[in-house]
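thread: overnight batch results

M.L. [08:02]
morning all. the overnight job finished for the chain we discussed friday. pasting input first so we're all looking at the same thing
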Amino acid sequence: MSRIREMLPGEYGLLDEFLYQAIHTEPGEPRPPRSVTADPALRAYVEGFGRTGDVAVCAEEGGEVVGAAWARLMRGYGFAGDGVPELAVSVLPGHRGRGLGAALLSSLIERCSELGYPALSLSVRRSNPAARLYERFGFREVSGDDGEAVMVPPLGGRDESARGGAPFKRARAAALRVLTAPGLAGRAYLQGGLVPWVASGRDSLRPGSYRFVIL
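M.L. [08:03]
and the structure it wrote out:
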């Protein structure tokens, strides 16, 4: 069984392998040599990972890290603007086709949203089937060429933004931070529409007012 969690600093060295595995090749096309990841344009995705602003989550199975999704502020192939981190998602061969990529992407998007990033970006070859996964998560093309597309989603989701309210996951995360803050235990309470959000972990999509009460 897989567990999606934050990647630990001691595991950042694994990103070298995940970077290599993230390189897309067409069916029947030979894999590039591993030395390709020494190219400065690719090294930028993992070199010195762990600096301020870097975010990484991973999939663990049986004590082994079998997938990773990470993002950092950089000017890579998928650069979409200052302040917008570029992401990469990779799952080891033998563990693909079971939804790990989608789970990793969802976790990374949620984490970056909690950190206040306005958006994320990525670069994907147009022939890569992963492009359809990104589209399902709301990524839309903002630039590109005949071979590759740069895609960006607004964090929080278009539908939630259209309702004019705070994105569900961000609002719930903020509520939980307040409710568990040192010094507020037993004094902070919720009223109104946010109560079922926090209790169930699901957005009912019904409008409503909510507020914190601190005694």
